[in-house]
């Protein structure tokens, strides 16, 4: 086992340790046939992308594996296709057998074998049963690992958006979908991916026109569920069109506006075909009008023209039904709402950064208007200006919306229902997130009360039984209580949510000033000034939130405060005794992916025993064996928790947080908010999360148009002003 595992790690260093262990275990399983092992191993390495990098490397590894398996062939089971003779048969007493058949016409094996000593070796039987159980479990894991065939195929073939869209959403020209319900109700669905079971026997219910917020802990499988829905691995009716926005679009020479228009694949296809038909008509007209054309040729040309005209009529009717002519205006409004100026809309998509390409992907999805639109953390790449517009836009969304988000304010504004994914099931709540939270707390209290009542009742029964079961006068009553107790369903305690408690140690006090910008101006050249005449003072008791459109210079201001950038004019003051901890949007770059969280803390802050590092990580939600896994195997939320654990060990006077909530789930954000509330140092944060800002800051600064100014109001007031300004701008 160790030999195979070592070979995999050396040949394919990026393979997940879970996969390595599984393959190594498969190889050592004496009940598995060589062909099965080889096929499974190659499939796994190919599916996770390791094998596809170099076919020769994979072939060489497979040859080594086959040689190893052949060397161990004496341990393998050789299946024989002939019938197996029973070593020990059951001998029935003929008289008993005849009597049984005479009375009932059936053979009672149990009664007929009574009185005969068992010839089965119980030790061998136990070993065989254990072996069979292990084999069944292993095959079950293999089925789970195979997981999402369609998704793996998509990743392998790199199908284009257009190909996948037409495959998943075939156009219904027959009108057969008219009058059909677009509600979704699916019972007993199972969803798995890799070796994880996401849902088991769950019910998925979504009413057309409702807006659902899908919530759950990091790693519970929310995004996986959305992918399965998008690719119809969960059997959504074909007359319901679906679209999932997961990642940014790839940049090319297409303009932003044209990219949005092309997102409606069928619209784009029929407009292109209409142009082709018009060109064809012009060619046929010229051919008909040409000199020397015979009557017979003209008749053929007229017949062809008639076919083209018929097809052209069909296309134009379809385009009218699609309202295709309104496309450019609708696309322009969507892009403007998401922050694209008229000049930006004419730029090629390859000129935009990842964040702006994500906005493009969102605009494309909104333009298509599918029956079921699925958004995965749509606010992560948006500023408050764009979020304010998106919230208002989605409130009038005409079809079904399913959105994954950790932003409570966004869910409160958009969602009409909440779906809570946990324990391999889906629970449904009417109302927005705040209503869900209140209902969930009430439900938990009720469940606890019912559990305690049932427990008290059972304890009362048991006490009565224990007291009177051997009393001759009360034995019958005790026996009655025993029967009542036996008939009661199994009592399980209500589920308890895991609580998290981040903590930043209180720093020693130091005299001001700590961090100051005094008339600071910064630009990468005198012609391109980003920030001008900025004045800000950060103290030990500061709670400052910086908001404004993306690209306005918020992160630049943070870097001026840290000293990573120097102003070209004005002054930046940094207290030499002030320790600054900086959480960046690209915090992953500050972590060593090749080591475990415990090892990473040991390298950064030596001198403690391992248990201290593990305990510290545990307070940030990195518990158990997670602290010993390589950081590269952790989820985005877990990596963020490791980053916060590092900041905490730096014992900062000032926390500088750039979009700290992006990768945390709702429970993680709550824990971070509570930690900041009791932190004795200063905090300056850049965030788009309204609830986070409201609960962690008492000063709101707006960064826009090269200036940083204090805003006299709260986040909600700012969003209202932004929305009103945008509406006035977009009004024709």
From TrEMBL:
It comes from Kwoniella pini CBS 10737. The keyword Coiled coil applies. Residues 287-325 form a coiled coil. Residues 184-448, 515-730 form the ABC transporter domain. GO terms for molecular function: ATP binding; ATP hydrolysis activity. PROSITE patterns: ABC_TRANSPORTER_1, ABC_TRANSPORTER_2. Keywords: ATP-binding, Coiled coil, Nucleotide-binding, Repeat. CDD domains: ABCF_EF-3. This is ABC transporter domain-containing protein.
